């Protein structure tokens, strides 16, 4: 039976041999068949929304991570989630809700039913809506009367009210199928635009981001029953600019405000302090808090299913699915370093549109080939892969992003953060960071990413984004990526040799495919997916397995290609500590 991919091949764009030297490729990217040929940078600017969006922000003041978080958390507190019939008059729905106050925005989406996310202009509107909301009259079961901001709206006369009603327009909350993605990528006109297209399809939408903050706010309502001053904040890929539709929601129960000393002046001859339970360590305190909040989520949290308390993990957590939102949630507490890592990644992701485009593509590539997995194990994690991509971008000439030490040098007094004894200081103000002068296209960056890691001396070197330099490995883990803040730790300690070998073999294969295409010598026929699309095909991985014995040959092929590029294009190959790399000055 023909695979879906084979069926869609006729739609895939024909592949063209490319003229021009590798040097021009470095400056302009790799033009593809199109009626009007565009360089990849022009094409990216014209076609890729990710790029447009990023570029339109040039000249405007960029918000800090904390500003974005505070704004969105406040917005989430004025927002409700309503399960409603798919066929409903949007106008009547909004008129009905407007009786409780002005509505700032709303949208519908599907997840085990149709849901509406409605943001009021004032928080008071929610109390007004709750006043007219009844508790469900269930005949055989009993409802736990915990009043939240998750509602169900039903029609009084479904047969007449929905009869001639079209379903409401729903916003997408998940990524397209990989075969559909491959098809879309084939109609881009350069590899650069393929990367931007992928990012545009995969990245979290504004609506989905709002939903993530809303879920945090709903969990905060539960935790507030015990800790009225707590906040629940998202971290990880939901907010670090690298989140893909459908990724998990990492949440941080922040109890820090509770520990703070009162700001009111202490007068009189006495001190007052709370009597509190004492426990032997912060870890035990976290476990106890999460255990209780986990039970509350399980027992009272509408929409929260499959609650698991994973309290013996290195970082204790409560995991559950938020069914109406359609994603998995991990709630942790006492996890400020991870919050800071998220801010660091947010900064890197916001500096240059190529950063996110490259990371999204590499993450997608790794996922389709089983290099990463949703199940914890000996695999490279998305977090590690992201750090590897950032390291690669720091190593370009000129660098595309600064090192962590350089960001630390730009820090103000208010950026100083020492968390659990770890120095997590770096500049939060994006506007202070000088844009890079590097103009390389994503065509080049993608190909060189695979080339770089296909030949990286993993046996002796570690990856360190603080210094932006390889360093000797302090211990013999197959993959050593220094934790940016807890510097004595390796974030990829879990990765086994076999998994790293697969990554290296696939990286080499992909570097080879892109280099072949670049020379117009592709072994693939003209009707097949090209560029990034070709790298996502299962055949790439099977070629690696088949060609394990061929690995020497593949390296030979890469070497001879590099040699021919050296001769043909007068592009200097420099020997960098025994490793072969291109000098990548653009024209
Ligand atoms: P996806 O969930 O796979 O989309 O990516 P993610 O970045 O959210 O990863 P994950 O959910 O596994 O982890 C959430 C956050 O925890 C990351 O963004 C990091 O800030 C932090 N984190 C994850 N793994 C590690 C690790 O091994 N070491 C450290 N220090 N932090 C980690
Ligand atoms: Mg995550």
TrEMBL record:
> Is Magnesium among the key words of this record?
yes
Among Gene3D superfamilies, the record links this protein to: 1.10.1410.10, Beta Polymerase, domain 2
* A molecular function GO annotation: magnesium ion binding
Give the record's keywords alphabetically.
Magnesium, Metal-binding, Transferase
The record's region (Disordered) falls at 39-61
- One Gene Ontology cellular component: nucleoplasm
* One Pfam family it belongs to: PAP_assoc
Q: Where is the RL domain?
A: 64-133
Give the Poly(A) RNA polymerase mitochondrial-like central palm domain ranges.
Answer: 192-349
The name this protein goes by in its record: Mitochondrial poly(A) polymerase
Residues in PAP-associated domain copies:
444-487
**Cited PANTHER family:** POLY A POLYMERASE CID PAP -RELATED, POLY(A) RNA POLYMERASE, MITOCHONDRIAL
Q: Does the keyword Transferase apply?
A: yes
Q: Per its UniProt record, what CDD domains does this chain match?
A: NT_PAP_TUTase (cd05402)
Biased-composition ranges, Basic and acidic residues, are: 49-58
Record SUPFAM superfamilies: Nucleotidyltransferase, PAP/OAS1 substrate-binding domain
Q: Which organism is it from?
A: Chrysemys picta bellii (Western painted turtle)
Name the GO terms of the biological process aspect.
histone mRNA catabolic process; mitochondrial mRNA polyadenylation; mitochondrial RNA 3'-end processing
Which gene produces this protein?
A: MTPAP
Q: Which cofactor does it need?
A: Mn(2+); Mg(2+)
The protein's superkingdom reads Eukaryota
């Amino acid at each position: 039976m023909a695979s879906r991919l084979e069926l869609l091949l006729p739609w895939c764009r024909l592949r063209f041999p490319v003229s021009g030297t590798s040097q021009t490729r470095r400056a302009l990217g790799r033009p593809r068949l199109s009626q009007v040929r565009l360089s990849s940078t022009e094409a990216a600017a014209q076609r890729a929304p990710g790029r447009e969006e990023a570029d339109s922000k040039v000249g405007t003041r960029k918000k800090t991570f904390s500003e974005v978080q505070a704004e969105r958390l406040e917005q989430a507190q004025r927002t409700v989630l309503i399960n409603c019939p798919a066929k409903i008059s949007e106008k009547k729905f909004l008129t009905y809700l407007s009786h409780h106050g002005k509505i700032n925005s709303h949208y519908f989406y599907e997840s085990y039913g149709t849901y509406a996310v409605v943001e009021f202009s004032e928080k008071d509107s929610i109390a007004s809506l709750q006043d007219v909301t009844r508790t469900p009259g269930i005949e055989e079961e009993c409802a736990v009367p915990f009043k939240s901001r998750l509602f169900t709206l039903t029609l009084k006369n479904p047969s007449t009210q929905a009869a001639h009603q079209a379903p409401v327009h729903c916003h997408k909350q998940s990524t397209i199928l990989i075969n559909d993605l491959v098809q879309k990528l084939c109609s881009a006109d350069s590899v650069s635009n393929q990367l931007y297209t992928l990012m545009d399809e995969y990245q979290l939408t504004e609506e989905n981001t709002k939903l993530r903050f809303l879920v945090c706010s709903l969990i905060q309502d539960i935790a507030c029953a015990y800790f009225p001053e707590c906040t629940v904040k998202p971290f990880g890929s939901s907010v670090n600019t690298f989140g893909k539709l459908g990724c998990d929601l990492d949440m941080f129960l922040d109890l820090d405000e509770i520990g703070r000393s009162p700001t009111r002046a202490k007068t009189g001859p006495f001190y007052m302090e709370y009597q509190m339970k004492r426990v032997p360590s912060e870890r035990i305190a976290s476990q106890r808090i999460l255990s209780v909040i986990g039970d509350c989520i399980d027992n009272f949290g509408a929409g929260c299913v499959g609650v698991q308390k994973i309290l013996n993990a290195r970082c204790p957590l409560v995991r559950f699915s938020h069914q109406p939102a359609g994603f998995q949630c991990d709630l942790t507490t006492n996890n400020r370093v991870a919050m800071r890592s998220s801010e660091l990644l947010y900064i890197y992701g916001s500096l240059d549109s190529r950063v996110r485009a490259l990371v999204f593509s590499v993450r997608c590539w790794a996922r389709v080939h089983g290099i990463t997995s949703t199940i914890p194990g000996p695999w490279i994690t998305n977090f590690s892969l992201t750090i590897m991509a950032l390291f690669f971008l720091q190593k370009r000439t000129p660098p595309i992003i600064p090192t962590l030490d350089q960001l630390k040098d730009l820090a103000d007094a208010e950026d100083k953060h020492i968390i659990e004894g770890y120095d997590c200081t770096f500049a939060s103000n994006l506007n202070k960071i000088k844009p890079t002068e590097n103009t390389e296209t994503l065509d080049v960056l993608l190909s060189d990413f695979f080339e770089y890691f296909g030949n990286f001396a993993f046996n002796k070197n570690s990856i360190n984004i603080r210094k932006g330099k390889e360093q000797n490995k302090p211990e013999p883990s197959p993959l050593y990526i220094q934790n940016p803040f807890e510097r004595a730790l390796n974030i990829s300690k879990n990765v086994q040799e076999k998994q790293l070998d697969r990554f290296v073999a696939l990286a080499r294969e992909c570097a080879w495919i892109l280099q072949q295409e670049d020379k117009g010598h592709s072994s693939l026929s003209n009707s097949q997916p090209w560029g990034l699309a070709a790298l996502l095909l299962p055949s790439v991985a099977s070629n690696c397995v088949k060609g394990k014995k061929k690995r020497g040959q593949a390296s030979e092929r890469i070497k001879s290609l590099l040699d021919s590029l050296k001769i043909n294009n007068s592009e200097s190959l420099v020997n960098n500590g025994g490793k072969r790399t291109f000098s990548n000055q653009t024209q």
